[in-house]
Amino acid sequence: MWPSKVLGKVMITGIGDTVDTRLRQEQAGFRRGRGTFEQILILRNIIEQVIEWNANLYVFFCFLWISRRLLIALTEVFYGK
Predict the structure, then answer these.
(1) How many helices (H) and strands (E) does the chain have?
(2) pTM for this prediction
(3) What pLDDT is stored for residue 51 in this prediction?
(4) How far apart are CA 73 and CA 77, in angstroms?
(5) Pick from 17, 28, 30, 78: most CB atoms within 10 A?
(6) Calpha distance 40→29 (Å, rounded)
(7) With contact defined as beta carbons under 8 Å apart, do 59 and 43 qualify?
(8) Count of CB atoms within 10 A of residue 72's CB?
(9) How far, CA to CA in Å, does 11 sit from each of 14, 19, 25, 54, 60?
(10) Backbone angles phi, psi at 34, to 5 degrees
(11) Using CB atoms within 10 A of its CB, is residue 34 exposed (0-12), middle (13-18) or buried (19+)?
């Protein structure tokens, strides 16, 4: 294993518990014992109900690898300034 991977693993292990206490209970992905599968099922259930009730639903996804400028630009395209 590369030294940088070992150092990264040590750092993640050291801060993992501290980070877990600061994140909301609903926060899932990339956390030990918390997958996104259940959250996807909940979102699907909500979407099915919205369709059944013929209502509007607005969902905002935030991906860490998308720049803030791109998110702002996309929001302006779809919803105006």
Answers:
(1) 3, 0
(2) 0.46
(3) 92
(4) 6
(5) 28
(6) 11
(7) yes
(8) 11
(9) 5, 12, 22, 48, 31
(10) -130, 100
(11) middle
Beta bridge partners of 34: 31
Q: Per the structure block, which two tokens stand in for 58?
A: 């607005």
Residues (pLDDT < 50) of the chain are none
- Maximal C-alpha separation, the chain: 55
Rounded Cα gap, residues 71 and 61, in angstroms: 10
Number of Cβ within 10 Å of residue 38's Cβ equals 10
- The helix/strand/coil state of 31 is strand
Give the pLDDT score at 52.
95
- Quick one: tokens of 43? 């979102």
pLDDT value of residue 65: 62
